[in-house]
Design brief:
Its EC number is 1.1.1.49. By secondary structure, this protein is an alpha/beta fold. It has 17 helices and 14 strands. The longest helix has 20 residues. Bound molecules: 6-O-phosphono-beta-D-glucopyranose (BG6).
């Protein structure tokens, strides 16, 4: 049977993430039969909620799913609320008793998943108490799922990791990077290692540059306090963008397994050329949005943001990789809030044909880009469109001979993607299966922070000239300059 058996204990059970992502995802797993009779969920947080109130919250969190109320009630009846102060040993004793009671009641076979969906400064304390108060079982599995941010630099990430590994082994730790749960991010490995035409060209002989764009339309919204202490570099580059980069650049894993993939990702991340402090300003651009014409507030005027904040709401950078495969190929990355639109895409720009036989004279006379053939570009559309696009040069229809760029376009159809699991659902399912392929492993986290720390430190020590971009644009001009000075330009421009 496909049924999974486990007790979930969610720290931060009253929180936004739990309500927006976790409860709906668990419900979908329930609807699909991965969770049936043998599961229970303990939600904990400081607030003194009753089980009845908790059930209402669960039910409300599923409102968008348009589900049968009987199913919803049945599902919600597996949820138990435990008011809990994470620093109080006594409370863990109560939690232990409740866990054991539910284990017996639902036949949970000692399987435990602890989900830490709360302020990271408590992760260490929680892990330590889970051990000292003997909440971990020895007859089933014990796994811990950790939400981001995993530290705010290498040192704090290491400290956090040391606390966790005092209780859990690396193979019991599931660090969430929800981009790894996205359909088209998982597709990167499929298209690379499932197609000879790509993998044979996937190197510096044929690829000119690669562009990764994670664009957001909204501002900081209700997460201002967290965001103002983080910024785009820590919020998106250290984790999502470097994970995507590692999947794009890693060598072929021996087998498609968690261990083999991790080995290759770590090799890729360790090959990133570390920036020297004096190189930061020429290789990375930071931005912060000002006010928009249409009443959009400047970053510094947003609620709970300090009026002299120097936090980056935009970052663009050029990353080089020092190995045989990638030497000389720039990877341009960018992400930010209040950009033109909400989308994620990867553009792989191939080298142009060496000669343009169709326009030979012109090319010899004035070697400017207009007389050269366009490059082939493979675009991986991650969101909201999910698919691939390939630009090629072809003959223009009709008499005479001219070339014209054409596009091959493939998108998953809406019906297929509507039924496909959302990132959190996929990742919870993987964690239930003991499969951490699509989670980040410690060495990956460590190497990513080391790369990012140099940039952040330089920024902290130098005053930016903020605000420097308008809402609804693709960031400051310097982000375009970054490519222009290499003779490149962003494939997606506004
Ligand atoms: C999160 C960041 O990790 O990713 C947010 O903390 C960001 O700031 C979000 O908005 C974007 O995720 P998605 O799935 O909407 O692209």
């Amino acid at each position: 049977s496909k049924e999974k058996i486990a007790l979930f204990t969610i720290f931060g059970g009253t929180g936004d993430l739990a309500q927006r992502k976790l409860y709906p995802s668990l419900f979908k797993l329930y609807q699909k039969g991965y969770l049936q009779d043998h599961f229970a969920v303990i939600g904990t947080a400081r607030r003194p909620w009753t089980d009845e109130h908790y059930h209402e919250v669960i039910s409300d969190s599923l409102a968008d799913l348009d589900a049968d109320q009987k199913d919803v009630d049945q599902f919600a009846s597996h949820f138990y609320y435990q008011s809990h102060d994470v620093t109080d040993a006594q409370h863990y004793m109560t939690l232990k008793k409740l866990s054991e009671k539910l284990d017996a009641q639902y036949g949970l076979q000692g399987n435990r998943i602890f989900y830490l969906a709360m302020a990271p400064n408590f992760f260490g304390t929680i892990a330590q108490h889970l051990r000292s108060e003997n909440i971990l079982t020895d007859n089933g599995f014990n796994r811990v799922i950790i939400e981001k941010p995993f530290g705010h630099d290498y040192a704090s990430a290491k400290e956090l990791n040391d606390h966790l590994t005092a209780t859990f082994n690396e193979d019991q730790i599931y660090r969430i990077d929800h981009y790894l749960g996205k359909e088209m991010i998982q597709n990167i490995t499929a298209i690379r290692f499932g197609n000879n035409i790509w993998e044979s060209l996937w190197n510096n002989r044929y690829i000119d540059n690669v562009q990764i764009t994670l664009s957001e339309k909204l501002g900081v919204e209700e997460r201002a306090v967290y965001y103002d202490n983080s910024g785009a570099l820590r919020d998106m580059v250290q984790n999502h963008i470097l994970q995507i980069l590692s999947l794009l650049t890693m060598d072929q894993p021996v087998e498609f397994t968690e261990k083999d993939i991790d080995v290759e990702k770590v090799k890729a991340l360790r090959s990133l050329r570390p920036l020297k402090p004096e190189e930061v300003a020429t290789n990375f651009v930071r931005g912060q949005y000002g006010a928009g014409d249409d009443g959009v507030k400047a970053y510094r005027d947003e609620d709970k943001i300090s009026p002299d904040s120097n936090t980056d709401s935009f970052v663009a950078g050029k990353i080089m990789i020092d190995n045989y495969r990638w030497s000389g190929v720039p990877f341009y990355v960018r992400t930010g809030k209040r950009l033109t639109d909400k989308f994620t895409r990867i553009d792989v720009v191939f080298k142009r044909p060496v000669v343009n036989i169709f326009n030979h004279e012109d090319v010899l006379e004035n070697d400017d880009a207009s007389t050269r053939l366009d490059p082939n570009i493979l675009t991986i559309n991650v969101e909201p469109t999910e698919g691939f696009e390939l630009r090629m040069n072809a003959k223009a229809v009709g008499q005479g001979f001219a070339t014209t760029p054409v596009k091959l376009n493939y998108s998953h159809d809406a019906e297929a993607t509507a039924g496909s699991p959302e990132a959190y659902e996929r990742l919870l399912h993987d964690a239930l299966n003991g499969d951490a392929t699509n989670f980040t492993h410690w060495q990956e986290v460590a190497d990513s922070w080391k790369f990012v720390d140099v940039i952040q430190k330089y920024w902290d020590e130098h005053q930016p000239d903020f605000p420097n971009y308008r809402p609804g644009t693709m960031g400051p001009d310097a982000a375009d300059e970054l490519l222009h000075k290499d003779g490149h330009r962003w494939v997606y421009r506004n």
